[in-house]
Write a structure and sequence with these properties.
3 strands, 3-stranded parallel β-sheet, alpha/beta
């Protein structure tokens, strides 16, 4: 049975090791008859939570105009979610680059 697979890649470089790993997983999933979409988070605009409580207290959509809502909708619709982010030994620059995926993982109220 075909699955809806969503791959979230926070690789800082297209074609880098992590991005290539996502591509290879995608190739295998497609070869096995699955529907696959890869989102390259570096291309997305994701703002940090402002703590306004619009979503949690008032049960309304997040007022921020970014790509997070679209990504969350795709995550909810997926049968399988594959997440790949980099761990470069604590380098603050690379932490900021891969931070968009970590931010998505921490946004539990949106």
């Amino acid at each position: 049975m075909s699955k809806n697979v969503l791959i979230l890649s926070s690789s800082p470089r297209r074609g880098g090791n992590s991005d290539t790993l996502c591509d290879e997983f995608m190739r295998g999933a497609i070869e096995n008859g699955n529907q696959v979409e890869k989102i390259f988070l570096r291309d997305k605009n994701i703002h940090p939570c402002m703590g306004c409580s619009v979503c949690s207290q008032y049960k309304k959509p997040c007022p921020q105009k970014d790509d997070a809502a679209e990504i969350i909708e795709k995550m909810l619709a997926a049968d399988v979610i594959v997440m790949r982010w980099n761990g470069f030994g604590g380098c603050s620059l690379t932490e900021r680059r891969s931070g968009s995926l970590k931010h998505e993982m921490n946004e539990d109220t949106r």
